[in-house]
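Handout for the seminar on molecular recognition.
Each group receives one record of this type.
Step one: identify the two inputs.
Step two: read the structure output and locate the region that could contact flavin-adenine dinucleotide.
Step three: write two sentences on what you found, then compare them with the reference statements printed after the record.
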Amino acid sequence: MSRYHPVTPEIIECLRAICGAENVSTSQADIDLHAKDQSHHEAHPAEVVVFPQIAEAVAETLRLANDARIPVTPWGVGTSLEGNPIPFYGGILMSFERMNEIVAVHADDFQVTVQPGIGHKDLNAELARYGLFFPPDPGANATVGGMLANNAAGIRTVRYGASKDNVLKMQVALADGRLIQVGSRSVKQSSGYDLLHLFVGSEGTLGIITEATLRLVPVPSLMSAVVAAFPTVEAAVETVVAVRGSGLDPAALELIDAAHCKMLRETEGVDLLDYPTVFMEFHAAHDAALQAGLDTVREICAEMGALRVHATTDTTERKRLWHARHHSYEIMVRSHPNKQFFIMDVSVPISAYPALIAFIEQVKRESGATAYMIGHAGDGNIHVEFPYDDGVSRDRAFRLNSAIVIKAIELGGTATGEHGVGIGKAKYMRREHGEALDVMRAIKAALDPNNILNPGKIFPNGGAA
Ligand SMILES: Cc1cc2nc3c(=O)[nH]c(=O)nc-3n(C[C@H](O)[C@H](O)[C@H](O)COP(=O)(O)OP(=O)(O)OC[C@H]3O[C@@H](n4cnc5c(N)ncnc54)[C@H](O)[C@@H]3O)c2cc1C
């Protein structure tokens, strides 16, 4: 793209001076490793990879890149599923691998301040000794920076919220090299524009997160898992809606289709029936409260015609179940060695969930496509996984994806509940946001007038902002 300038040897020298020579790489291995996330989108190589260790180096790199009109794409660990961290126009790839420290644990305030490159699983392993945890859980060991930038969510979002609900304050480097603080460590905040949440979910297109203070919650003293199998997807989906409407407060509420259950039973030895299944988790401080909740769930499942309901408070069994659920996508991919996979993500209000699932079943049936469903049903969120092995099956998957995204928007939902827009969902932004997309463009132009921050994302037409 001619509007950007190449990374010259002089720029590399400047980057070495800013980040330290050992933190600047042009090796083919580093370029290749950061050219593609875990999506189906094609790889684009950066010209140089930098691994800053301090916020000031991030800010100075941006100042340099802005002056020289060179794109900068931040990178957590590249587990995105919509091409979000792919350096679409080359330039500088900024990896947060070497900014992965816990800065401070504020245990009395249920908060932690971290650098952006820390993996949320590594963070929670450290926090366990304080009896606290950071609840958003996207399965993969994603970084806090990548989670905040994508507003990632996960199985516990139904109770604890998404990444946006669990952050209080951030330090952000702007395109012009300024380092600013947004938000506050106060849980209540009513002071001025909510810049904190402007940067959350902006996928590295408005600024780069160099530090974040996160909200934590105490590790629950009692947890139970419930697995209920149903004769039809409709019955499973109606159960999800009924559990949500019952006043119970599930910590997880997941829908897994029959094909996924079969695969988890065969490959992981998980005790499941080959029928649409709802996985649930409940947290409580007292056994009586936990048991009362479980009784209500059993009643709801029985009313909905459950074929089997199994509840457990055994930690090992619960962890095994959730491990299988968390890794179901990877297990699915592994079980189809000759196929490529495309996974899509949409979300609707919970009342529209049955209509969305019925629509997916219908288009699947009519097209004859192979497609699997798995989702954070309690949030109205579903993922459809399409295996493909040639141009015909790939194009069909893309067509079905489009139909499902449009249907989700029509149902009052969104093109993406948690994976973000990246490259793949940019074409739906006008349909979903209407004139608000122009406001987004104006914000982008105000904060990044030279469009150097992760260009090619969010906005249609190659990210032209
Ligand atoms: C098997 C599997 C399961 C998944 N399940 C879920 C799920 O349940 N829920 C869910 O939400 N997601 C899920 N994901 C998607 C992915 O894990 C999340 O989107 C995650 O937040 C990406 O984090 P990352 O560290 O890999 O970031 P990356 O993919 O490296 O980057 C994500 C985005 O953040 C930007 N970025 C990175 N660091 C910064 C920074 N410091 N400042 C500003 N911008 C930055 C990047 O440019 C990019 O736009 C799954 C992915 C896989 C592979």
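Reference statements: The chain has four domains: 9-98, 102-218, 222-329, 336-428. Residues 37-38, 73-81, 84-85, 96, 116, 138-140, 142-143, 145-147, 149-150, 152-154, 203-204, 208-209, 329-330, 418-419, 454 surround flavin-adenine dinucleotide (CB under 6 Å).
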